[in-house]
Amino acid sequence: MLEVHGLSKIFGGLRAVDGASLAVAQGSIAGLIGPNGAGKTTLFAALTGFLVPDAGSVRFRGEDITARPPHHICQHGMVRTFQVTQPFAHLSVRENIMVGAYLHTPDRALASARAEAIARQVGMAELLERTASGLTVAGRKRLELARALATQPKLLLLDEVMAGLNPSEIDELIPVIRGIRSSGVTVFLIEHVMQAVMSLAENVFVLSYGKIIAQGAPRQLAADPVVIEAYLGRGAAQRLAGGAHA
Amino acid sequence: MNWKIPAGLLAVALAYPFIFRSNFAINFGVLVLFFALIGQAWNIAGGFGGQLSFGHAVFFGTGAYCSTVLQLKLGWNPWPGLVASAGAGALVGALIAALSFRFGLKGSYFALITLAFAEAFRILANAVEFTGGGLGLLIPLKRSAVNFQFAERIGFYYTILALTVLSIGIAIWLKCSRFGARLAAIRENEDAARALGIDSYREKVKVMALSGALCALGGTFYAQYYLYIDPTLAFGVDKSVEMLLVSMIGGTGTVYGPLIGSLLLALVGEGTRAVTDAQGLSLIIYGGLLILIIGFLPNGLVDLFKLRWRRKARA
Ligand SMILES: Nc1ncnc2c1ncn2[C@@H]1O[C@H](COP(=O)(O)OP(=O)(O)OP(=O)(O)O)[C@@H](O)[C@H]1O
Ligand SMILES: [Mg+2]
């Protein structure tokens, strides 16, 4: 469904994404993890047209969409959420979601009905008439998800929708994301909350200093010394192993 | 959508010339509606679209000159001239928007570029032959409705009423249409709007064309009402500021804000003129009011009405 080849994005001298290649299969939930500043958000931005890649290509649903503008990519079925939530602050939750729903219908009543259905799906039906600026962090994260979902995507890119949520909120959101996948939407998510990655993703990519350094099932990666070192520093895997022997 | 308010307002506006028959009263009504029209034109770009302009006179002047030049140089009737003006205003709006937004101009940069365009048009109108240069253009007196020169002022009144109703109708449509929702999204957060599939460049060009067309209608009306136009009247900063003030005082991004602002502008203007002959006093009062309103009612005078409605709803 999504194939990325040798994607690079350079900021000044910094290779924020450095020749990253990956593929996401249709109908799956894929994960992208990596330490802070690894380039995950930058990678998402380059996939969705918000940043023009310096090298590499992005194929989506059989078409080369490299460096197309964001609205084209969204219309083609790939939509992103923002790590730092970007609500339409003065609009109500309903109006926020309707903006997404309007992608496929000019009809106000229909867009409104879709917004309601999606609000129910992500568990914010009671908040429909609230102004977006008054939402809690958890509410805003859900709103990001709902708006994106309203565009009826084929592939949903979620940038840390669990960050800042408490454990019970995370427990609520996990089945919501499973539900989205079972409704036929492929999901690709950036996540620091390992509990979420472990229970959701079938295939996980690990990004470190802009490079994909490992890929595989989450349990297998958790034991991979390359991954542990990326998170904890050089020699950490050995030290951990040593500690276990002692 | 609550149709009681627009229907009530329309009934009052239709009956007004029969209740207040004096020339003074009709003239007052014409001015209120005229500023409501060009204020709404500004509001559609600045309030609904979030693209603040300091140079909307560029569209007003384009309209005024378009129909007048067509009339004087090519012998056009001013009614088709009015339609041509709307087209010219839309074209200039789309061109300025396309240029500015291609280069990613936003906020105060966009405001300045529109101001620069208005000034450039003013200087151009001063310099070239067919606009009559600095002397301006005088439309010969030939009183008849066919000529858009009504023998009775009431004809002007109902013409400007029709144009203002059109502008308010467009504002109502923006409140409840997909185009309006997209504009609101762009105004609130352009990146988020683009992520959701909105072509923000195209929508912004569209709204500037729409706003330019409406503003140009006001320009043609002005030329026909006073039968005279010159570069400063047409493209001067005064007009740009007046449109902006009318909209800001009443409430930007609201359907009735420009109408309320325009009514206040006219009342203050006539009120001070009745009390004193001192030039500029009305402007001082107006400036003072503006400061008070920005201080206490940052969303404009419509907030006063909203508060009352809410109180009534609770009672
Ligand atoms: N617009 C930009 N200009 C310059 N440098 C940038 C820009 N955006 C990101 N960077 C840098 O690129 C690197 C990658 O940032 P990015 O936000 O993609 O990381 P991330 O993996 O999403 O991190 P986090 O887990 O903290 O969200 C960082 O060093 C960041 O400072
Ligand atoms: Mg990030």
Helix content of chain A: 25-40%
CATH class of chain A: Alpha Beta
- How much of the sequence lies in strands of chain B comes to under 5%
The class by helix and strand makeup of chain A works out as alpha/beta
Q: What is the structural class of chain B?
A: mainly alpha
* CATH superfamily placement of chain A: P-loop containing nucleotide triphosphate hydrolases
The total of helices of chain B stands at: 14
Q: What is the domain tally of chain B?
A: 1
For the largest interface, the chains and their residue counts are: A-B, 30 and 19 residues
Question: Rounded to an integer, what's the Rg of chain A over CA atoms?
Answer: 19 Å
**Low-confidence spans of chain A: pLDDT under 50, at least 5 residues?**
none
Oligomer: heterodimer
CATH topology of chain A: Rossmann fold
**What count of domains describes the coordinates of chain A?**
1
* DSSP strand tally of chain B: 2
Give the termini distance of chain A in whole angstroms: 47 Å
For the report, how would you describe the main beta sheet of chain A?
Answer: 6 strands, mixed
Low-confidence stretches of chain B: none
Beta-strand fraction estimate of chain A: 15-25%
Write down the overall mean pLDDT of chain B: 90
Given the structure, what is the number of helices of chain A?
A: 10
Task: Break the fold down into its secondary structure elements and pairings.
The complex is a heterodimer of chains A (246) and B (315).
Chain A: E1 2-11, E2 14-24, E3 29-33, H1 40-47, E4 55-60, E5 63-64, H2 70-75, E6 78-80, H3 93-101, H4 108-121, H5 137-150, E7 155-159, H6 167-182, E8 186-190, H7 194-200, E9 203-208, E10 211-216, H8 218-222, H9 225-232, H10 236-245
Parallel strand pairs in A: 3-8, 3-9, 6-7, 7-8
Antiparallel strand pairs in A: 1-2, 1-4, 4-5, 9-10
Helix pairs in contact in A: 3-4, 3-5, 4-5
Chain B: H1 4-19, H2 23-48, H3 57-74, H4 78-102, H5 107-127, E1 137-138, H6 153-176, H7 178-188, H8 190-195, H9 200-226, E2 228-229, H10 231-235, H11 237-250, H12 257-275, H13 281-296, H14 302-314
Antiparallel strand pairs in B: 1-2
Helix pairs in contact in B: 1-6, 2-6, 2-9, 2-11, 2-12, 3-4, 3-5, 3-9, 4-9, 6-7, 6-9, 7-9, 11-12, 12-13
The complex binds adenosine-5'-triphosphate and magnesium ion (MG).
